[in-house]
Design goal:
33% helix, 13% strand, single chain, alpha+beta
């Protein structure tokens, strides 16, 4: 299979087979196409050329009358219901309980009844020792105390009790914290440069000129200076990580 982003060929005549029950690890430097392969299998990216088969069924394209023909979305969706992808970092629905989060996809993607989905979810939660948390919200799952530079972040002790810190105080502390996710969301409608200056301007209060200057310096440092005006969809997985 072949995948290009504009003039950039990320995957050039890649060909491999994963057998049933086989475990395969993709290893390579940043920008070598590891994430792109996974996104192609999940149909989150469109193949430029070639074919992908899942259990012998063509996924994105197939041969019809000697020509390469695109498979309709309805057929694609039927095939992808048998494919799952677990992101390194993921988002749970904060307004739903643990159980509701777990049954969401089985009901709406796999078409299971609610009773079937709940039975499977409860068994899985029990398997990982989380059955007792099935009615908790994601925000209630972690406990304890976190300090940043000696300053309590989420909770603190008051009168021998654990007390939640007001959001205004939390925000003051988190302006000094940065986090780079292994898998993350960039604003797809914004360029690389616009994505980078967003937080410095709106969270740290930098002027646009200062934010752009810092962003350009960082992009040059990681070899991405020439990509500043591209959209995230034009980047490889490794480039998005950088």
């Amino acid at each position: 299979m072949v995948k290009r982003f504009g003039d950039n060929t990320v995957l050039d005549n890649l060909n491999f087979t994963v057998s049933h029950g086989e475990r395969v690890t993709l290893i390579g430097p940043s920008g070598s196409g590891k994430t792109t392969i996974l996104r192609l299998v999940m149909t989150l990216e469109e193949l430029t050329d070639g074919y992908i088969y899942v259990g012998g069924t063509p996924l994105q394209y197939e041969q019809q009358g000697g020509k390469r023909a695109r498979i309709p979305d309805k057929r694609r969706r039927r095939t992808t219901t048998d494919i799952g992808m677990v992101f390194q970092h993921f988002n749970l629905f904060p307004n739903m309980t643990v159980l509701e989060n777990v049954i969401e996809a089985p009901i709406h993607v796999m078409g299971l009844s609610k009773d079937e989905a709940v039975a499977k979810a409860e068994a899985l939660l029990d398997q990982v020792g989380m059955a007792w948390k099935k009615d908790a919200r994601p925000s209630e799952l972690s406990g304890g105390y976190i300090h940043v530079g000696g300053v309590p972040l989420q909770y603190e002790e008051k009168g021998g009790k654990r007390v939640r810190i007001p959001d205004k105080r939390r925000r003051r502390t988190t302006t000094d914290i940065g986090m780079v996710f292994q898998h993350f969301n960039l604003f797809p409608n914004m360029t690389v440069l616009e994505n980078i200056v967003e937080a410095p301007i709106h969270v740290k209060g930098l002027s646009r000129a200062d934010a752009v200057s810092k962003a350009e310096g960082l992009l040059a440092k990681v070899g991405m200076g020439e990509k500043r005006d591209m959209k995230p969809s034009q980047l490889s997985g490794g480039q998005q990580q950088r």
